[in-house]
Amino acid sequence: MAPSPFHRLSATAPHPHRATARIAVGFNGDATLKSRAGELARELELPLATTGAADCDLQLVLTAEHLELRDCRDVRLGPVLVEFSHLDLRPYSANLSRRQPLARAFGKKTRVIVDATAGYAQDALLLALMGFRVTAIERSPVVAALARDGLERLAAQTGTTLTGRLELVNGDARALLPAIAPRPDAIYLDPMFPPKRRKSAAVKKEMRLLRELVGDDTDAPELLEISRGIARDRVVVKRPDDAPPLAPDPSMSLTGKLVRYDVYLARNQELKK
Predict the structure, then answer these.
(1) Contact, 94 vs 100, CB < 8 A?
(2) What's the distance, Cα to Cα, between the start and end of the chain in Å?
(3) Counting Cβ atoms within 10 Å, is residue 141 exposed (0-12), middle (13-18) or buried (19+)?
(4) Mean pLDDT score across all residues of the chain
(5) Which three-class secondary structure state does DSSP give residue 187?
(6) Residue 174 and residue 223 in contact, taking contact as beta carbons nearer than 8 Å
């Protein structure tokens, strides 16, 4: 596959997080895609299988249009792919407003952000288009591959230039953050939201599969503590509006429609108080 400005594997990272589900790479029947699918399989250290094979739980399928994740255990479920076309990404849209809680949580002095739990990279993309320089870290190689594909298609379809503004890295943020130099102004954490007590059919398949691929982020408190020792100014944590803070006594909180952004000062900033 062609080199991408949105992805690299870090040689200093430990082995990326692996899901417990059996995952394979496939391609959509077109023989011209076989070599690209094989290269992706080698990159992700996953087997290459015939599309629709019964010996895997999930299959990352390369088609002529995009990369998608299929659940082989339930053919009624549609595929998951990263698509940004539903977002209004015009320069002065509400999504890119510096007045919204996501942007305000970072303060006026922040220029460089590390999104340490990137997921499908939607927030990382929005922050980059707001004018921040963002490094997005995602520990699941499968999720990182889906995010990269979505970003590449966005760039190809719209001409959006993200080179130098957004970099996508696959690895464990706990190991990568101490090696980042210079240190970022802020670190953004969006750990998996606590599961609802009552399971709902309305839970989107994208989020259900994301949880299966990355787990419940039980190491989120540890990652917050590491981040507060590395960020120059602050750590911003995204939480459901009805969930307790990830750690006690955030410096401040900004509430959106369904989520809350808790702000924790970096350790060096706390010492100055």
Answers:
(1) yes
(2) 50
(3) buried
(4) 87
(5) strand
(6) yes
- The sign of the torsion formed by the CA atoms of 215, 221, 223, 227 equals positive
For residue 104, pLDDT beyond 50 = yes
Q: Under a CB-based contact definition with an 8 Å cutoff, are residues 112 and 138 in contact?
A: no
Residues 215 and 195 sit within 8 Å (Cβ to Cβ) = no
3-state secondary structure 112-168: EEEECCCCCCHHHHHHHHHCCEEEEEECCHHHHHHHHHHHHHHHHHHCCCCCCCEEE
- Measured CA to CA, the distance from residue 199 to residue 128 in angstroms comes to 34
> Could you read off the pLDDT of 155-190 as tens digits, one per residue?
999 988 899 999 999 999 999 999 999 999 999 999
Identity of the residue numbered 9? L
- Angle between helical axes of 205-214 and 141-158 (0-180°, round to 10): 130
The CA-CA-CA angle for residues 19, 57, 2, to 5°, reads 70
CA distances from 232 to 57, 109, 113, 227 (A): 42, 11, 10, 10
